Amino acid sequence: MISKLTTEYQFFMAMPHNMRTLLITNMLYSLVLPVVEIFMAAYIMRYFSDTSYVAMFQVAMYTGIIITSLTNGFLLKNFKVAHLYSFGILLSGLSMVGMMMVDNITIVGLLVSGTLIGAASGFFWTNRYLMALNTTSDDNRNYFFGLESFFFTISNITVPVLIGVLLAYFDGSMIFGFELDILKGYRIVTLMVFAITILACFSLAKGKFENPIQKDFLYFRFDRLWNKQILLAALKGLVQGFLVTAPAMLIMKYVGKEGSLGLIQGVSGGLTAILIYLLGRFAKPKHRIFIFSIGITIFLIGTIVNGIELSMVGVIVFVLCKVFFQPLHDLAYYPIMMKVIDVVSKRENRNNYAYILNHEFGLYAGRVVGLGLFIFLAFYVSESFALRYSLIIVALLQMLSIPLAKNILKNSYNTEK
Q1: Is pLDDT above 60 for 68?
Q2: What is the DSSP pairing of strand 174-175 with strand 178-179?
Q3: 188: Cβ–Cβ under 8 A, 6 or more apart, which residues?
Q4: Which long-range contacts (CB under 8 A, 24 or more apart) does 18-21 make?
Q5: Average pLDDT over residues 59-66
Q6: Domains of the chain, earliest start first
Q7: Looking at 63-72, 254-263, 400-409, which range is the least confident one?
Q8: Helices first, then strands: H and E counts in the chain
Q9: Which residue among 190, 207, 224, 325 is the one 20 to 30 A from 294 at the CA level?
Q10: With contact defined as beta carbons under 8 Å apart, do 295 and 252 qualify?
Q11: Nearest 5°: phi and psi at 14?
C-alpha cells in the first residue's frame, strides 16, 4: 500500500509546477465549497422555512457570477490572474461572514448577499478555468480534474459531517460565558471557513501564472463548434442549479437536520472519490464520452426514484446518485470544454478568456431556466410537486447532452487531423 501511495505521489510531483500549485490551492478551497453549496441553502431554509427563498438566493448568486465574469475580463488587462483568483477566494469567505452576521435577513438582504457570494464565485471559477487551461494539456487534463474531483468529493463527505457535528455541539452550549444557538453556530463555522480561504491564497502565491496576451475578450459571434459547446453548457447549467439547492431542500423536508446532510452523502462518497481518482489517473481522452454518459444515466435513475418515492428512502437514493453523478460528469465535461477552447481559439485567433466568459453565459442561461422552472412549479402547483417532477424533467433534458458531447468531441479531434 505504501509503495502504491509513493508511486502516486511521484506521479503527482512529475506534473508541471503550476499545475501542482493550482491543485493544492483547489484542495484547500474544496473545504470551503460544501459550506457554500449545502449549508448556505440549509441556513436560508432554516431562517425562512420556504424553499422558494433558496431558489431566489441561487438566481441572485448566478447573476453575481455573470457580473464579475464580465468585470474580470477588464481587470485581467491590469491585474494578475492569480491575484484576481485569490480575491475571489477571500471575497467568498467575507460574503458568507457578512450574511451570517446580519440578525434580520430581508428579501433584499438575501438577494444582495446572494449577488455578493456569486460575485466571489465569478472571480474564483473564471480565473480557475483560465489557469487550468493554461497549465494543463489534453493529455493530463483527465488527471487534473480527476484529482481535483477527488478533493471535492472527499470534502463533500467530511466537511458536512464535521459541520453537522459542530452545529449540534454549538446548539445550546456555553462558550466563554456565551450561550450559543444553531444560528450562532453557523457564524462560528463561517469564520473558520474564512481562515481556510486565507491559507488557499498563500498556497496560490507559490505559482507563476500568465495572463492572456491578447486583451480583447468580448465577442458575440463564434465558431459553430463553440456554439455547440455553449448549448452543452446550458444543459449543464440546467441541472447545476438543482444540485446546489435540491439536496438541502429535500433532506431538510424529508430526512432530518443538518447532520443528516453529511451522513447521507458520506455513505457512497468514499467509493466515488476513489473511483474518480482512478478514472482520472488511467482513463484516456477517448473514454470521456463513456464516463459522461454513465454519470448522466445515474442522475436520471436517482431523479426517477425520488419522483416515485418522495420520502426518506427516495431522497436518500437521489442524493447517493447525485454523489456519483456530479464528479463523473465534471471529470468528462471540463476536459471536453477545454479541448474545444484549444481548437477554436487557434482557429479564430482569440483570447482564451473570451470563451471562458461566453461559457459562463451559457451556464447562466441554463441555471436561470432550471431554477425558473422550479419556482414556477413551486408557486403555481406545489412545492412537493416541484421537488418531485422538476428534477425528472431536468434529468431527461440532460440526456440530450450525451449525443451532443459525442459530436463536439468528434469534431474537435477531426479538426486537428
Answers
A1: yes
A2: antiparallel
A3: 166, 170, 180
A4: 18/131, 18/134, 18/135, 18/207, 18/208, 18/209, 19/135, 19/136, 19/140, 19/144, 21/203, 21/204, 21/206, 21/207
A5: 86
A6: 2-203+222-416 (1.20.1250.20)
A7: 254-263
A8: 17, 2
A9: 224
A10: no
A11: -80, -10
